[in-house]
Structure formats: C-alpha cells, structure tokens
Amino acid sequence: MTISIQGAWGSGKTSIMNMVQNRINDKVIPVFFNTWQFSQLDLGNNLPISMLKVFLNKISNGKIDALSQKLLKLGKKGIKILLNAATRSISGGLLEGPFDKDHPQEYVDFTEALEDLHSSLQFAAEECCNNAGKDRIVVFIDDLDRLVPSKAMELLEVLKLFFDCTHCVFVFTIDYDVVIRGAAEKYGFNLNDHSSHGQKEAEKGRAFFDKIIQVPFKVPVVEYDIKSYLVEVLQKIDINPNNEDMPKYQKLCALSLGTNPRGLK
C-alpha cells in the first residue's frame, strides 16, 4: 500500500509524518528515507538505487551482499529500461515513455533480473517480519516534493515497480502539484494547454498518479487553529499579546499569510 500526505510547502506534512511514526514505531518495522538529504549528496541520478539500498540494509540487518549484487546487476540503465516499460504497464497504456526497441534482448534480460530482485525483496521482507514478530514494514519517505519534479516522478515509479510486496506500506510527503508537473515534464504534455486535447493529456498524468497512490491524505491547513501557535512564536520574540490584541494578530495573519505554519513562523 502507498499512502501520501499531501500539502503545499510549509503546511506541516513532515510534522504529521513524524507524529504517525512516533505513534506506530513499536508496532511496525520503520524505515526512514529523506530524499532531500540524498539529493544534496549529488545522488540525484542514483536516488532509486540509493533508496533500494537503504531499504535492503534496514530489513536485512546489513546482510545485503546477495541482494546488492542483484541490484547492481540492474544498474542505472536497467532501471531506466524497466521504468519505461513499467510506465505503460502502470498507466494501462495511457502514458508512453521512450523504449529502446532496437535492443529487445536487453529488455528481456533486465526483466528477468527485476523478477529475481523482486522475489528476493519479498523473501527478505517476510523474513524480517517473522524475525521481529511484526506484520509489516512501514517506509517513511520525506521531502519527495523538494526534488526536481521529474525525479520525484521517477521515484514514485520505482516504488510501484520494485516495492509492490506483501507486508510493505509506504508513507510519503508530497505536494500534488509537483508530481503533476513531473508527469507533464516527463511525458511532454502542457499543463497550460486548456484545449480539449490539453485537458485530456493532463488527465492522463493525474490518472497515473492516482493509480500509484491508494490512500491520499490532504493536510487540513484550513482547519488549523493558529491562536496557540501564534502565542508561542510571538512570545519567542518577547511579545506577550493580551486577550484584546490576540484576535487582531490572528486576523492580520489570516488575511495575509493564511494558516501555513512555516509561513507564519
């Protein structure tokens, strides 16, 4: 299962993810992956492989030699070929990615390698759960929307392709608009094209995203009660508002910044 915590920049997605993680930490096997940290290490082009390695290392207690070899066997080129094929499979043919038709044997070889790796991932996940006496692994993926949109899209495709395993649940934070821009960038449709053809193309991108995400959760920013938060941050800058002034501060913020916690801060 894949679950998304969706919201704009600064809306509190990471805070909600951390609250969820703290609540269930002792009931599941947690794996945390921060895509922003990895991208800052100039691993942008290798993010899918990096994420696979983090996952494997966590669930196999560092004993990943055999699985690592299978991962390396795929390599960047193999993952790219498989992602292109998976795009058509996941979208039911709605989206077309580039595919090297001149080398069909490579596709066959990589498909076999993928099946081998997927079987190994499934076995490792089951063994990990049995050893820990728990029934699921929950992978928390943060800051997906801070990547270049096309990279965020690629990481979502990897999730669907590699991690469709029993016992595995993925929870990630994302700005929905970033993913749609990534789909537009990758598959060449224009989000500003308001013609019937343009709207149809944009709908394909949204359908692709919706097929990857089973449970979307939208951060309820409009329902935030900002009074207590405002009191706290104002006191940090030596302002102690009284009951008469506080409604003015709240109204001022509501009419300018809204209720976005990071914007308020």
From TrEMBL:
Coiled-coil boundaries: none
KAP NTPase domain ranges (all copies): 2-264
Gene3D superfamilies named in the record: P-loop containing nucleotide triphosphate hydrolases
Record-linked Pfam families: KAP_NTPase (PF07693)
Name of this chain's protein: KAP family P-loop domain-containing protein
The organism of origin for this protein: Succinivibrio dextrinosolvens DSM 3072
